[in-house]
Design brief:
- The protein is α/β, with parallel strands linked by helices and 145 residues long.
- The two termini are 13 Å apart.
- The chain has a single domain (3-144), classed as Dehydroquinase, class II (Rossmann fold), CATH 3.40.50.9100.
- Strand 3 (71-75), helix 4 and strand 4 (97-101) form a beta-alpha-beta unit.
- Strands 2-1-3-4-5 form a five-stranded parallel β-sheet, with helices on both faces.
- Helix 2 packs parallel to helix 5 and helix 3 (55-68) runs parallel beside helix 4.
- The chain contains five helices and five strands, in the order E-H-H-E-H-E-H-E-E-H.
- The protein binds ligand CA2.
- Ligand CA2 is lined by residues 12-13, 15-16, 19-20, 24, 75, 77-78, 80, 101-103, 105, 112.
């Protein structure tokens, strides 16, 4: 059976492709899911994409990943800059984690420059647009092989 990678997405990312295309591009989360699904098939990986506007639901998906996933790709969105709870949950997950940001958080407001997640992540991709998700999937494939 193929390994599964969880692709977790934080608040407001359900609106991708609908607002602020100059920052976040034109692709929707569904487009990202299709691209990752297709790439996953060539890499021999299954993917499960989840988005929530609620911090606790993301924490619970990280707990589920402990039994169900070989790796996590996570764009925690605004929770990147606030959430010790998501960091603590990721610290209970004993497999690769890649943090993705669509925009380059270091070119933006100073409050976006600190991530609670980066110290746990095995890699961080920021500023590659929505291609960051497929780049992360390619890299995590090498880490879980
Ligand atoms: O660049 C990223 O991927 C971010 O994680 C996106 C977050 C932001 O708080 C982080 O600092 C960087 C915001 C996601 C908001 O998503 C939207 C999508 C479409 C329209 C408006 C917001």
């Amino acid at each position: 059976m193929s390994k599964t990678i969880f692709i977790l997405n934080g608040p407001n990312l359900n609106l991708l492709g609908q607002r602020e295309p100059e920052v976040y591009g034109h692709k929707t989360l569904s487009d990202i899911e299709s691209a990752c699904d297709k790439l996953g098939q060539t890499l021999g990986l299954g993917i499960k994409l989840f988005q929530s506007n609620h911090e606790g639901e993301i924490v619970e998906h990280i707990h589920m990943a402990r039994d169900q996933a070989a790796g996590i790709i996570i764009n925690p969105a605004a929770f990147t800059h606030t959430s010790v709870a998501i960091l603590d949950a990721l610290n209970t997950f004993d497999a690769p984690v890649i943090e993705v940001h669509i925009s380059n958080i270091y070119k933006r407001e100073p409050f976006r420059h600190h991530s609670y997640i980066s110290g746990r992540a095995d890699a961080v991709i920021s500023g590659c647009g929505t291609d960051g998700y497929t780049l992360a999937l390619r890299h995590i494939a090498t880490l879980v092989s």
